[in-house]
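Customer ticket, subject: "Can you confirm the structure for DUF3718 domain-containing protein?"

Message body: Hello, I'm evaluating your service for our small team and ran a test protein. I'd like someone to confirm that this is what the system normally returns, since I don't have a reference to compare against.
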Amino acid sequence: MNTFAFKSFVIVGLGIGLSASALAQTPSMASCEQIRTQIQAQVGIRTKPDTAMLDILSEHPECRFTAAEVFRAAFGDRPMPRNTRRDGQRNMRDDDD
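Agent reply: Thanks for trying us out. I re-ran your input and got the following:
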């Protein structure tokens, strides 16, 4: 293989690699407020979680999403279930003994 063909091959390969990495980073560039807006736009009740939206949330731990925001991102308008575990612990504790 001559040097010109080899250099051309390397340049084209490098260009493809850089453009692919730039495309991969584009979705994760969203700000926390933009993601919160997308969460609020989740309407309707989903029977299965929206895994694409959950992936976006997991890519941004610096946003510190609340449990309610994560639940809404996954299931839309479905009411968040009550945490009955805490209610049971409070009732079992008796300080008057």
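A couple of notes from the result: The chain has five helices and no strands. Residues 3-25 form the longest helix (23 residues). Feel free to reply with more questions.
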